Amino acid sequence: MRPFAYERAADVRSAVAACAAGMADGAGAVYLGGGTNLVDLMRLGVVSPGVLVDVTRLPFDGVEETAGGGLLIGAAMRNSDLAAHPLVRRRYPMLTQAVVAGASGQVRNMATVGGNLLQRTRCSYFQDVTKPCNKRAPGSGCPARNGDHRNLAVIGQSESCVATHPSDMAVPLAALGAIVHIEGPGGSRKVPMPGLHRLPGDTPERDTVLEPGDLITAVELPPLPFAVRSRYRKVRDRASFAFAVVSVAAALDVEDGMVRDCRIALGGVAHVPWRAERAESALRGSPATEAAFAQAADEELAQATPLPHNAFKVPLARNVVVRTLLDLVEAS
Amino acid sequence: MTTVAAPYSGTALDRVDGPEKVTGRARYAYEHAPDDLAYAVVVQSTIARGAVRVVDADSVLQLPGIIAAIWHENAPRVAPIEDAELTVLQSPRVAYRGQVVAVVVAETIESATEAARLLRVDYQVEPHDVELRADHPGMYRPDHVNPDYATDSELGDPEAALGFAPVVVDATYTTPAQHHNPIEPHATVAVWDADGLTLYDSTQSASAVRATIAPLFGLPPESVRVVSPYVGGGFGSKGAPHAQVVLAALAAKQVGRPVKLAATRRQMFAVTGYRTPTVQRVRLGADEEGRLSAVVHEAFEQTATVKEFAEQTTVVTRMMYAAPHRRTSHRLVRLDVPVPTWMRAPGETPGMFALESAMDELAVACGIDPVELRVRNEPTVDPERGLPFSSRNLVACLREGAARFGWAGRDPEPGVRRRGRQLIGTGVASSTYPVYRLPSQATARAEPGGGFTVKIAAADIGTGARTVLTQIAADALGVAPAQVRMEVGDSALPRASVAGGSSGTASWGTAVVRACEALTDVLHRRAGDVPPGGLEASVDTAEELRSQRPFSRHAYGAQFAEVGVDLDTGEVRVLRLLGAFAAGRIINPKTARSQFIGGMTMGLSMALFEESVMDVEFGDYLNRDLAQYHFAACADVRDVDAFWIEEEDPELNPMGSKGIGEIGIVGTAAAVANAVYHATGLRVRDLPIRLDRLIGGAV
Ligand SMILES: Cc1cc2nc3c(=O)[nH]c(=O)nc-3n(C[C@H](O)[C@H](O)[C@H](O)COP(=O)(O)OP(=O)(O)OC[C@H]3O[C@@H](n4cnc5c(N)ncnc54)[C@H](O)[C@@H]3O)c2cc1C
Ligand code: SF4
């Protein structure tokens, strides 16, 4: 048996301290949310922390309103509760849609907001400790590049890693510019999305900008009135219980047939939830027409550098962006 | 042959073992816990070809709770039987990635798992070859194909006929490797004692496991007992014993304690069988009215180097449609891959995807309705064997299915029906499955206190066999089902054939009926008097089966599908599936319906999702869990329905039944693919029909 210590933190300070102590021991310490990803990876031998600090009992499991009409979501909140929350549903429908499009009811009942943001890639080489993988074993190589990469990245990938971030929830959060609240051994800070996740570059072992021992305490949703008309569209290989092949979260502010403002982010295409900034700036001030949407999508996807077996994601992403924006126009 | 009077056959009796199952009292293989139990976990090879050089057992033997590490150098010897999949740990050779190279036995499953992870194995690596291609230089002609069909067949001059035919379809279809994934993983608890070996196993045939395992350990069959009363699905993967059975027995022998061993879901992708991928070329020659003059169906498949399994992919084409000129063939290549095996309707499932897709292409080429095309090519006798059909109601299934599905007035034009952002299409395909019957034995017993016990080593793998046999026995004895207790799933019971080839009910049912008849005779002679020790009668059906009259015996069906294909994303959703079947007498409409719609659901999965992806660089199947190996989720199964056409066929068995376990999957994938063509105008010849196979095309 591979022993590990389990600690249940009662407050933030003791959680961060317990994690720091575990790390100081050299045993490796991590936070435990619902465990739906972490425990699987422990079973597979992909990670083997010596200390698990359970943060699901921390008092961060609710939604608070912030001044100006935003929301502060506790990092320990369960995905199901997040999706069902009336204020989330009303103000940020794309977030509810994204969460319920993920995993299954059972997994969502366990999964936490913090854990969802930090779930690891579903690249099958990453999950198989008998094979090389730069993300799991830095420097060992990336077999996905010439092997199975059908569901991996088409934008922003590097020679050393072509993995995607698999979260649905993170996509609308990136579109909203959600702010991630962090407590770490060095104090507290805030990181706006999509800046939490990072591109692989030549250090794909690092998924995010977090430092060891950093605890996510909350996710702040800035006020965005036009997000009441927002939408998440997930393309997947079966009707439910499958990760996104490509997804899009979009919010559109249209007046007199012109796009006043918009937010667009893509899932399933990159190592990060991909904020489509080029498309957004192309659209601001342009007519809300299919042609303009297509042109904006093309501008975004011009940066794509797909691999042989995932090139289909580029036209797919284009279609889904255009269709989702058109649906939003129709709905308004 | 006369069939028995049947007040209970044909009724929807609830499963007799339902209460045990839903209350958790039904004990499955892994739930047996004899005293002093130890746990075994396997170590799988991380190379696809080569040899084990060193196993560093010392590295794990000091760990707490470890009892033994067993590998080829210290494993007990087994007899060198022909089936090399089972002669495990006898040599250093590695024939595929994931092959078992060692077993660790420990006091707990956790210790064994950890030691198996830590056990260091060094290999001498050789280059591997795991890629199936039709033009692979290693392609050879096997002696026969599963189970014992001729490898090739030829009638007339098909090449010449194709040359003359006004309309020719020539297309190549591929199907990927597929894994069964029964929900209960393969598990065995092995116990040695003075009497021999007892195996609590999850199997489709306790008798076959005994017959295979006994000689391996140099034991007479009586010294091996296989107990398997409840099985959580098999689909063919538990039809014959796999390595885990032998490993459990070997390990228990080595450590002198009972040993429990289960395959994990991930391990099952290498060690418990799968369906071979296929490449199939179909050529059809026809006149303008769609009458076939030539049918040529060639299959290219893989097998393992340790054992040959030749899927009978094109055999179905020998019987399906009339045509004077015809040829079928099978070619295999031995690759450094895990051993393929039976999977629900081996042969018919991949074969009918290709043939029935090609028939649809022919219908399009001739401008004939695809239902009508099939009706036009209906043979009067088995086209290659020349035998009369015992019954054949394909046409009735097509016609009645078309009527219920609402096929009439279908516009054949592809790509023109829209519902919102979906393209809508419908498709049809024929379905069929052979009628097999295998020798079995059974004992019927009148109990002194009243009631009857009927014993047979049949397997209820979740199909409802125990229930259906209860009905059959009740009818044969002329009593109510509540008076009959069926005992199945134990090799100590009278020997029975495998739960495979959709032959269970026919084979076991025959034995049960004959045993009950024999008992009734005895009781009659004793004027109904049952002595204190009870009364028994036993039978063996081997003789009866030998004297079966020559007929071409098959069940038939027609599958209708309606699909919606998203214009923007290429996502395919099966909106409706309707199966029409003609399979003799249906003994229990409730369990039969489950088999039909279960098979169709698996066919839907095959059409759209199921695919074991070979990692060419490393030589294993990559997507080794149920998050990655997709089959239909509930949301994919919207409207699946089946009905059947009553069939009286006196040439089958005392029940008048044909097998129904497999026919539901046959043809479904073609019906879906044909519907996708009708929806989009895109012909997808490679399964599964993933969205990326459509996104670049019309959508
Ligand atoms: C079969 C299956 C299907 C799935 N399908 C989908 C899908 O379609 N879409 C989708 O988006 N997701 C899917 N998921 C993934 C699921 O959403 C994640 O597993 C889940 O959100 C992780 O949350 P958790 O709380 O269980 O995290 P855990 O497993 O507990 O943790 C994940 C990681 O986050 C770290 N962590 C947890 N909480 C904190 C914190 N507060 N601060 C810092 N670090 C923390 C852990 O140390 C760990 O590294 C699926 C999962 C499964 C098992
Ligand atoms: S893509 Fe990234 S995660 Fe996948 S094998 Fe390559 S390095 Fe590992």
Automatic annotation (TrEMBL), chain A:
Domain FAD-binding PCMH-type residues, every copy: 1-226
SUPFAM superfamilies per the UniProt record, alphabetical: CO dehydrogenase flavoprotein C-terminal domain-like, FAD-binding/transporter-associated domain-like
Keyword Oxidoreductase: yes
Alphabetical list of PROSITE patterns matching this protein: FAD_PCMH (PS51387)
Pfam family, one: CO_deh_flav_C
Top-level taxon of the source organism: Bacteria
Gene3D superfamilies on file: 3.30.465.10, CO dehydrogenase flavoprotein, C-terminal domain, Uridine Diphospho-n-acetylenolpyruvylglucosamine Reductase, domain 2
Keywords: Oxidoreductase
Keyword Oxidoreductase: yes
GO MF assignments: FAD binding; oxidoreductase activity
Protein name per its UniProtKB record: Oxidoreductase
Organism whose genome encodes this protein: Planotetraspora phitsanulokensis
UniProtKB/TrEMBL annotation, chain B:
Pfam family, one: MoCoBD_2
SMART domains: Ald_Xan_dh_C (SM01008)
Protein name (Swiss-Prot/TrEMBL): Xanthine dehydrogenase
Gene Ontology terms, MF aspect: iron ion binding; oxidoreductase activity
Mitochondrion recorded as keyword: no
Organism for this UniProt entry: Planotetraspora phitsanulokensis
Boundaries of every Aldehyde oxidase/xanthine dehydrogenase a/b hammerhead domain copy: 23-127
Keywords: Molybdenum, Oxidoreductase
Database matches in InterPro entries: Ald_Oxase/Xan_DH_a/b (IPR000674), Ald_Oxase/Xan_DH_a/b_sf (IPR036856), Ald_Oxase/xanthine_DH-like (IPR016208), AldOxase/xan_DH_MoCoBD1 (IPR008274), AldOxase/xan_DH_MoCoBD2 (IPR046867), AldOxase/xan_DH_Mopterin-bd_sf (IPR037165)
Record carries keyword Zinc: no
Highest taxon listed in the record's lineage: Bacteria
